[in-house]
Automatic annotation (TrEMBL):
GO terms for biological process: negative regulation of gene expression; peptidoglycan catabolic process; quorum sensing; regulation of cell population proliferation. InterPro entries: Amidase/PGRP_sf (IPR036505), Amidase_domain (IPR002502), Lysozyme-like_dom_sf (IPR023346), RPF (IPR010618). The keyword Zinc-finger does not apply. It comes from the Bacteria. Residues 139-291 form the N-acetylmuramoyl-L-alanine amidase domain. Belongs to the transglycosylase family. Rpf subfamily. One of its GO terms (molecular function) is N-acetylmuramoyl-L-alanine amidase activity. Keywords: Hydrolase. This is N-acetylmuramoyl-L-alanine amidase domain-containing protein. Gene3D superfamilies: 1.10.530.10, Peptidoglycan recognition protein-like (3.40.80.10). Pfam families: Amidase_2, Transglycosylas. It comes from uncultured Mycobacterium sp. One of its GO terms (cellular component) is extracellular region.
Length: 364
């Protein structure tokens, strides 16, 4: 989703001074007419409640007003689609105090939304290749401010115990640990569930000194000791994890680079890795998840797939073409042509029986 910054006016001015009445409407509701912080269009409230997105729509209200036709929650929808759902809410509750609709000088609710962004239901909220998964929030209190730290890592984790995304998210409510996402694949129907546990604008309690710079996803019920075959039984969850990684890399400007997993890492110092990266490369802690058998090739291919299908992002750079080495990488014909070029034009003057390499070259 494209990020846009709302322009500020001096403190105490109750109106934005914007040509769009939607800005005035939003700031009047959000900050009592006193805009004193920069708020971004994709997520104007990270204060701990469930309201999300430009129009502060809770997940329950989002679903009730048809938002799931675009995205699971307002946070994952485009500004255009958030405006469409907001217009439905305005229309159904034209005099509700929540939205300030019907007040003097306010426009028709649908026009209010249209004044902010074009009401274009054809624009996809997410790439067409979005995988199928169920997502809902279960916010944990275990988080902290990033204190202005640049987010440059997306890290994968294992649970090291039985469970699924929902049960792990519940565990994270009362223990001093958390992740941004928990994810699992049902062993029966293979449906994938993602639980949003900590807002990605906040730091989760996952990787010690790297908390403030990272986004963290945990495969519920998994273990660093798993074999490759055991991991591949969670192939759909791995695929969804790659999709989420691409979306968050876009949002925060994290390089779409898989640094590595299982103790094997490239020289890159920003991108997608696992918990052991923090242990081995950053030198903090003792964790070794996600383990040596995590199918990083499968995960990396999925990252490339979703990055290429995402028009707002930059796909990972393809590997550099291999440079041919002389003479071992050249064909016989190429070598003969090379020799002929060295001999120069015309047949040499010395006598020949017609059976030499020279005769073969000049017979080309």
């Amino acid at each position: 989703m494209t990020e846009m910054t709302v322009p500020l006016v001096s403190r105490g001015n109750g109106r934005w001074g914007s040509t769009s009445p939607a800005w005035d409407h939003l700031i009047d509701r959000e900050s009592s007419g006193i805009p004193d912080i920069i708020q971004q269009i994709h997520d104007v409230n990270t204060g701990g409640n469930e309201a999300e997105g430009l129009f502060q729509i809770t997940p329950k209200t989002w679903v009730a007003n048809g938002g799931k036709e675009f995205a699971p929650t307002a946070r994952r929808a485009t500004p255009q689609q958030q405006a469409i759902v907001a217009a439905r809410i305005f229309t159904r509750n034209p005099s509700g105090s929540d939205w300030g609709a019907g007040r003097p000088g306010r426009e028709d609710p649908s026009q209010l939304a249209a004044g902010l962004v074009p009401l274009n239901p054809q624009e996809p909220a997410v790439p067409d290749n979005r995988p199928d998964f169920n997502e809902y929030p279960m916010w944990s209190p275990n988080s902290q401010s990033r204190a202005g730290t640049k987010v440059d890592l997306f890290l994968l984790h294992t649970q090291e115990g039985p469970g699924n995304a929902d049960s792990l998210a519940k565990f994270l409510q009362g223990n001093e640990v958390s992740y941004h996402y928990t994810i699992s694949e049902d062993p029966n129907d293979h449906g994938v569930t993602v639980v949003d546990v900590v807002d990605t604008d906040e730091a989760s309690w996952s990787v010690l000194s790297a908390n403030n710079r990272s986004i963290n996803l945990c495969f519920a019920g998994s273990s660093a000791s798993w074999s490759r075959d055991q991991w591949l039984q969670q192939a759909r969850a791995i695929d969804v994890a790659a999709y989420l990684a691409v979306q968050d890399c876009r949002k925060y400007g994290i390089p779409l680079t898989v640094i590595g997993t299982g103790g094997k890492y490239s020289a890159a110092r920003a991108g997608i890795a696992d918990h052991q990266y923090v242990t081995k490369v950053l030198g903090d802690g003792t964790h070794t998840d996600v383990g040596p058998n995590f199918p990083v090739d499968v995960f990396s291919a999925a990252v490339t797939k979703y990055a290429q299908g995402d028009t707002g992002g930059t796909p990972p750079a393809p590997p550099s073409p291999q440079v041919k080495q002389f003479p071992k990488d050249y064909t016989d014909r190429e070598l003969l042509e090379y020799i002929a070029a060295q001999l120069g034009p015309g047949d040499p003057s010395w006598a020949s029986t017609g059976k030499t390499l020279r005769d073969k070259v000049w017979g080309l």
